C-alpha cells in the first residue's frame, strides 16, 4: 500500500492539482473527484482480478498482450514507460523547487556564495536530480528498504495534511453547500470531460502496487494494497477539496493553484507551524519520485525478458534482488531529459505539455487493461449475474468509459486551436505529444517484432519469461 499511495502522491496532487481542477469544475471539484473515482475503481477491480490469475511485474503489458494481442499489449507497456520517465523528469524539478522553498522558510537563502532561488529552473533541476539519485539508491536496494522509507514519509505527510485540512473545515469562513457534491452543476460537458481526464491523472499511481506482485509472498497483497490506497486517495482528495473551498473563494482556488497548500498553512497558522504543509509537500515529492522509479524499472524488466526490449533491462542484482541496472537507466534517462530541458526552453514546454496531456495516455493503458480483463474472463457471463458483473461488465464498462472520455478530449484538443504553436495551451500541440508517444510505441513494437524477433508477438511470452524472476522481498 505504501508504494501505491506514494506513487499517487496525494499531498502533491492536492497541493498542486486542486487549483487546476477548480478551473474546470469550480465549486463542484469534490463532485468531480467522486465521479472520476467510479471508472478508476472499475479499472482497479480489473487489475485485482487479473493479478489473481497471473501475477506479473509487467501487469498491464503482460495481461493485455495475452488477452487482446501483442501489439496493444506492447503499446500498454510502452506508453506507461515513456510517460513515467517524462513525469519523473518534470517531478524532479518540482521536487528541487519545493526543497528550495523550504530552505528559504528555514532561513537558508544562500549556499557557497550562491543565492538560492526556488524560481530558478537550473537550481531546481540540479537539486531535483540530487533527490532523484538519492531515491534511486533506495530503490536499487530492494522493495523492503524502499517501502520502509515510504511509510515514514507517508505517516508524516498524511498527518500534516489531515490536520490542516481538518482545521480548514472547522475554521473556514466560506459557507459549505451540498451543491459541491453535485456533478450536474458543472458548467459544461467539455469542462466535465477535461476535469475528469485531469482527475484520472491525479488518481494515477495506485497500480504501482501491482508491479511488485512477484516480490510479495502473497500476490493478493498487491491487490489489497492498490485498492486500499485508491480508497484512501478518494477520501483524502474529497476531504481536501472541501477544506480548501471552506477557506478559498472561486478565484482564489484557481489563482493560488500550485501554492494552494502552502497558502493554506500560512492562512491558518504562524511560523514555524505554517511551514509544515510545505514540508509535507516536500516529503510527497520525494516519495513520488521513488515510487515512479520502482514500477517503471519493473515494467521494463517484464518487457526485457519477453525480448521486446533489450536484455540490459533484465539484469537482476545478486545482492539486492532488484533490477538494479534498469532502475539506474530509468533514472539516467529522466535526468538527461530534465537537464536538456534546462538548456532548451522549448523542450521544457514539451515536458510541461506532456504532463498536462498525460491523462490521455493513462486513459489509454487503463482502458486496455480493463478490456483485457473482460476478454479474458468472458466465460464468467455464464456463471451468474454477480460473477459476470465483477469480471466482465464493470471492467468492460470502465474501460469503454475511459476510451470515450479520451476520444472526446482528443476531439476538443483538435478543435480548440486554429493553428499549431509550441505552447502548453495549444490544442494541436497537446494532442501531438501523446500521438508521438503512441507512434513511437508502434515503431518500437515493429522493431521488436521483426528485428529482435521477439516470440512475444507469436506466443505471448518471451523465451526467458519463466527463467528471469524477481525474488520475494516483502
TrEMBL record:
Main subcellular location: membrane
Topology relative to the membrane: Multi-pass membrane protein
UniProt keyword Repressor present: no
Domain of life: Bacteria
This protein's UniProt keywords: Cell membrane, Membrane, Transmembrane, Transmembrane helix
Pfam families: AA_permease_2
Protein name per UniProt: APC family permease
Subcellular location: Cell membrane
Source species of the chain: Actinomadura parmotrematis
InterPro entries the UniProt entry points to: AA/rel_permease1 (IPR002293), APC_superfamily (IPR050367)
Gene3D superfamilies assigned to the protein according to its UniProt record, in alphabetical order: Amino acid/polyamine transporter I
Regions that span the bilayer: 32-50, 71-90, 125-144, 151-172, 184-206, 227-248, 278-301, 322-344, 350-377, 389-414, 426-448
Amino acid at each position: 500500500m505504501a508504494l501505491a499511495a506514494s506513487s499517487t502522491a496525494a499531498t502533491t496532487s492536492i497541493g498542486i492539482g486542486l487549483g487546476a481542477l477548480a478551473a474546470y469544475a469550480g465549486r463542484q471539484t469534490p463532485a468531480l473527484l467522486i465521479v472520476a473515482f467510479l471508472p478508476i475503481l472499475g479499472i482497479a477491480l480489473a487489475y485485482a482480478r487479473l493479478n489473481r490469475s497471473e501475477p506479473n511485474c509487467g501487469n498491464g503489458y503482460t495481461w493485455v498482450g495475452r488477452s487482446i494481442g501483442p501489439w496493444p499489449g506492447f503499446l500498454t507497456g510502452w506508453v506507461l514507460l515513456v510517460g513515467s520517465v517524462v513525469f519523473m523528469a518534470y517531478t524532479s524539478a518540482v521536487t528541487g523547487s519545493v526543497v528550495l522553498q523550504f530552505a528559504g522558510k528555514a532561513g537558508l537563502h544562500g549556499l557557497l556564495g550562491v543565492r538560492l532561488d526556488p524560481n530558478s529552473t537550473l537550481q531546481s533541476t540540479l537539486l531535483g536530480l540530487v533527490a532523484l539519485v538519492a531515491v534511486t539508491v533506495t530503490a536499487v536496494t530492494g522493495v523492503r528498504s524502499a517501502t520502509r522509507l515510504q511509510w515514514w514519509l507517508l505517516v508524516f505527510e498524511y498527518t500534516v495534511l489531515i490536520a490542516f485540512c481538518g482545521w480548514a473545515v472547522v475554521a473556514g469562513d466560506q459557507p459549505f453547500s451540498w451543491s459541491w457534491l453535485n456533478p450536474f452543476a458543472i458548467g459544461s460537458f467539455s469542462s466535465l470531460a477535461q476535469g475528469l481526464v485531469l482527475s484520472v491523472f491525479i488518481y494515477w499511481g495506485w497500480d504501482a502496487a501491482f508491479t511488485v506482485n512477484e516480490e510479495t509472498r502473497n500476490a493478493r497483497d498487491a491487490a489489497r494494497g492498490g485498492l486500499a490506497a485508491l480508497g484512501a486517495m478518494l477520501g483524502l482528495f474529497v476531504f481536501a477539496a472541501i477544506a480548501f473551498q471552506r477557506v478559498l473563494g472561486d478565484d482564489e482556488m484557481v489563482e493560488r493553484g500550485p501554492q494552494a497548500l502552502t497558502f493554506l498553512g500560512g492562512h491558518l497558522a504562524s511560523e514555524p507551524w505554517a511551514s509544515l504543509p510545505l514540508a509535507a509537500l516536500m516529503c510527497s515529492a520525494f516519495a513520488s519520485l521513488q515510487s515512479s522509479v520502482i514500477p517503471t524499472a519493473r515494467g521494463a524488466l517484464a518487457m526485457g525478458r519477453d525480448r521486446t526490449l533489450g536484455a540490459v533491462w533484465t539484469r537482476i542484482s545478486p545482492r539486492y534482488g532488484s533490477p538494479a541496472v534498469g532502475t539506474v537507466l530509468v533514472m539516467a534517462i529522466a535526468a538527461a531529459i530534465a537537464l536538456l530541458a534546462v538548456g532548451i526552453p522549448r523542450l521544457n514546454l514539451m515536458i510541461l505539455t506532456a504532463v498536462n496531456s498525460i491523462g490521455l495516455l493513462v486513459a489509454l493503458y487503463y482502458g486496455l487493461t480493463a478490456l483485457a480483463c473482460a476478454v479474458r474472463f468472458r466465460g464468467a457471463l455464464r456463471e451468474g449475474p454477480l460473477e459476470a458483473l465483477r469480471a466482465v461488465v464493470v471492467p468492460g464498462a470502465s474501460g469503454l468509459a475511459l476510451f470515450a472520455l479520451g476520444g472526446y478530449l482528443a476531439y476538443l484538443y483538435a478543435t480548440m486551436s486554429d493553428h499549431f504553436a509550441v505552447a502548453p495551451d495549444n490544442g494541436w500541440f497537446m494532442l501531438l505529444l501523446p500521438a508521438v508517444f503512441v507512434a513511437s510505441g508502434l515503431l518500437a513494437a515493429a522493431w521488436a517484432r521483426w528485428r529482435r524477433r521477439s516470440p512475444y508477438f507469436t506466443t505471448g511470452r518471451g523465451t526467458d519469461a519463466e527463467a528471469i524472476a524477481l525474488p520475494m522481498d516483502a
